[in-house]
Amino acid sequence: MPQPAPLPDGAFLADYARRGAYTDCFATTLPGRLGLAALVEAVYTSPLFKLERWVLATLLRLPSTDAQARQVALGHAERFAAWRVERRSDTQILLDAGQTRLWLAVAAGPAGAASTTLLFGSAVLPRRPGGRFGWLFHALVGAHRVYSRQLLAAAARRIGAVGLAQQTT
Predict the structure, then answer these.
(1) Residue 139's pLDDT is what?
(2) DSSP 3-state helix, strand, coil percentages of the chain (rounded to 5)?
(3) Whole-number pLDDT of residue 147
(4) Where on the phi/psi map is residue 131: left (φ > 0), alpha (ψ -120 to 50), or beta?
């Protein structure tokens, strides 16, 4: 199960943490070399995230497909359902959805180890003056943390199930 982790140096999400946004980061390590595209695709096409995609399509009329997820994963598209790519590098991507951000990253394991650490984080920007969060945020943040860990775990399972670990792009 993914565990809470500090944001690594250079994480795109760190800019929001410095500005007073709520941020979190969860990590899990898998054997093999894995590129960012595989992680992005695995998160957005996992069965758990497909439920979120269904909600977005049904309630907000923001449909999405696995093919669109793959296009974002490969860097061929900048939008996916409610998200817009805000920033991207070879090892991390930051997606904007209004007051929230989704951050995904991969980090190579220690020298000589054929492993990859998968990182999943989010930021919530405060709407209130002074950077305070309201009661609804505080009521939901625990469930958000559980959901984030479950999404990363689902992506890790999907990577293993469909052989995405062979992808390094």
Answers:
(1) 87
(2) 40, 25, 35
(3) 93
(4) left
Quote the pLDDT of residue 163.
58
3-state SS assignment for residue 8: coil
Return the pLDDT at 59: 93
Q: Would you put residue 134 in left (φ > 0), alpha (ψ -120 to 50) or beta?
A: beta
Along the chain (169 residues), what's the average pLDDT of each consecutive run of 10 residues?
94 93 95 94 94 93 95 96 96 95 92 87 84 81 91 93 53
Residue count of the chain: 169
Give the separation between CA 29 and CA 47, rounded to whole angstroms: 20
Q: Is 118 helix (H, G, I), strand (E, B) or coil?
A: strand
Q: Supply the DSSP symbol for 7.
A: P
- Helix ranges, 23-134 (H): 36-44, 47-59, 66-73
Q: How far apart are CA 168 and CA 30, in angstroms?
A: 13
> What is the residue type of 145?
R
Q: pTM for the whole thing? A: 0.89
What domains, with CATH codes, occur in the chain? 3-162 (3.30.530)
Helices (H), the chain: 14-18, 36-44, 47-59, 66-73, 135-162
The DSSP 8-state label assigned to residue 131 in this structure reads: G
